[in-house]
Design a protein that fits this description.
- This protein is α/β, with parallel strands linked by helices and 503 residues long.
- It folds into 3 domains: 41 residues; 99 residues, no CATH class; 320 residues, Alpha-Beta Barrel (TIM Barrel), CATH 3.20.20.370.
- The protein is 38% helix and 15% strand.
- It has 16 helices and 18 strands.
- Helix 14 links the parallel strand 15 and strand 16.
- Bound molecules: zinc ion.
- The site of zinc ion has 5 residues, from loops.
Length: 503
């Protein structure tokens, strides 16, 4: 009995110990559970800033404005994907940031949607800041939460806010590259050759294409080189602003553009974005359309009469490049599209009132223009009939201008920019405009006059702006390669499929 008793006693004591241990474990689990619960509802406190802050710190230590180590095509960056909101060189961190499941920070397994939402917001803000829209980035962070100042409760938001504010202070006028906006480059192209075998097939138009056009591989190389050299696209609308004087009159003055140190603002334009019928079958896009994703795309007519949609010209190519490299564009700037009127615009034959598709074409092209503007593209007049505006009479210039204003201006919502056909200015002197031609054009609302010259040149006058552009076409590359030396070595750009100089 005694032995049994003591056995029983020992057994009971052991059982007690087991219960005590189990009890302790349960309490510990409850405490830990409560701690995790606190973490999930109270981010930024309890020392659990975790991954979000680590990622931000990593971004912070990446020097702004350094050249991203990507391949020319930006192959390391997934378009529209994880790279959003991180500096381009920061892909690995970016992947962690977006790739992490929302619940990953939360061992209790509860999905922390709010935390995910904040990461998304930060990604958007970072992207805006990369494109120099610091105001937009800061107000986006500020807008978080129901009540004003709610962002301050979240370490990741308030720290990003402070960091972006500091970063904004480090921006310098014209990137420190120029002392005046008048020194910037304005480069231009015509329609890109999308199919070399058709453009350079030896027919009577081949030589003209060889002189005045640039191929898609050449354009890609130029843009990539300029990006790596620190060039940043700006809009024509960013260059100058109107200042009101004491007497109530206005004058144009330079508009300051603040960029990261070492960056260089520049303008890109494209002439004759009309897809003229003479180019049909020669390997060019045939019009601009809105693609399935709601973005501008190019349509191209195939030999069998069907059409195919793709990136066959500057608009979709540059859009995609900036999607991958948001720091290549200042506040969403793209390029300037210069349009004539005699064959309609953007590949729509809106010049022909008798066309059975006249109304539909106008409707369609206005929708395309709307999307292009939303994407940052600007428009200019390139005259209606593409005549030498110096050589033609005042009367003819007036008629041509009136026709452009009647047929084209309503489709694009008007413009104050005139890009001279052939690059030939209405006046030969570089003093001040004073001709009747100038007066008429000014009366019709044109304030910015754009010619062609081998190097950057720009005048800001009281009533108008006059500037020139540099062509980056076959003639410039094959005949005057030395003029382009500051931009690139022509050898690195030339398409091997382009014929040798044949003029
Ligand atoms: Zn032209």
């Amino acid at each position: 009995m005694g032995k049994t008793d003591s056995n029983e006693k020992n057994g009971k004591q052991q059982l007690k110990k087991v219960f005590l241990v189990i009890g302790a474990v349960v309490i510990l689990l409850l405490v830990l559970g409560f701690y995790w619960f606190l973490n999930s509802i109270w981010p930024g406190k309890n020392g659990s800033k975790g991954k979000a802050e680590q990622t931000l710190q990593t971004i912070q230590t990446t020097p702004e404005g350094t050249t991203p180590q990507t391949t020319p095509e930006g192959a390391e960056l997934t378009p529209g994907g994880a790279a959003e909101g991180t500096t381009p060189g920061d892909m690995a961190e970016g992947t962690t940031q977006e790739g992490a499941s929302p619940g990953a920070e939360n061992p209790s397994g509860n999905t922390d949607n709010k935390s995910f939402e904040r990461q998304e917001l930060l990604g958007q803000a970072e992207r805006l800041a990369l494109g120099y829209d610091y105001e937009g980035a800061l107000s986006l962070i500020k807008s978080y939460g129901e009540e004003a100042g709610a962002y301050k409760q979240y370490a990741e938001l308030s720290e990003a806010y402070e960091r972006l504010e500091e970063e904004k202070e480090t921006l310098v006028l014209y990137g420190g590259a120029y002392t005046s906006i008048t020194q910037i480059n304005h480069i231009f192209f015509h329609s890109l050759v999308a199919d070399n075998s058709k453009a350079f097939d030896g027919d009577r138009r081949s030589r003209g294409y060889n002189m005045y056009m640039t191929t898609i591989p050449e354009f890609n190389r130029i843009i990539d080189k300029m990006y790596r050299d620190g060039y940043v696209l700006v809009k024509m609308a960013d260059l100058v602003k109107k200042e009101t004087l004491e007497d109530g009159t206005t004058r144009y003055v330079e508009n300051p553009i603040y960029l990261r140190q070492g960056k260089k603002p520049f303008i890109l334009s494209q002439d004759d974005v009309n897809y003229y019928s003479y180019m049909d079958g020669d390997g060019f896009a045939t019009r601009i359309v809105i693609g399935g994703d709601g973005k501008p795309a190019c349509e191209m007519l195939q030999e069998d009469g069907t059409t195919t949609t793709g990136a066959f010209d500057i608009v979709p190519i540059l859009d995609a490049f900036i999607e991958e490299h948001p720091d290549f564009s200042y506040k969403g700037a793209k390029g300037l599209l210069a349009l004539t009127g005699y064959e309609g615009i953007l590949g729509y034959r809106t010049n022909d009132e008798t066309s059975p598709t006249y109304e539909k074409d106008k409707e369609d092209v206005m929708e395309v223009v709307k999307v292009l503007k939303e994407e940052g593209w600007e428009f200019a007049s390139h005259s209606w009939g593409h005549k030498d505006m110096y050589a033609i009479s005042y009367e003819l210039l007036k008629r041509d201008t009136d026709r452009w204003l009647k047929e084209v201006a309503p489709l694009i919502g008007g413009t104050d920019i005139l890009v001279f056909p052939f690059g030939i200015d209405i006046e030969k002197t570089v003093g001040s405009y004073g001709s009747d031609k100038y007066k008429y054009l000014k009366e019709q609302g044109f304030d910015v006059f754009v010619g062609v010259y081998k190097e950057p040149w720009m005048q800001i006058k009281k009533d108008y702006v006059r500037m020139t552009r540099r062509p980056l076409d076959g003639q410039a590359m094959l005949q005057f390669p030395e003029r382009l030396e500051d931009l690139f070595d022509v050898k690195d750009i030339l398409d091997p499929e382009r014929p040798p100089r044949d003029w």
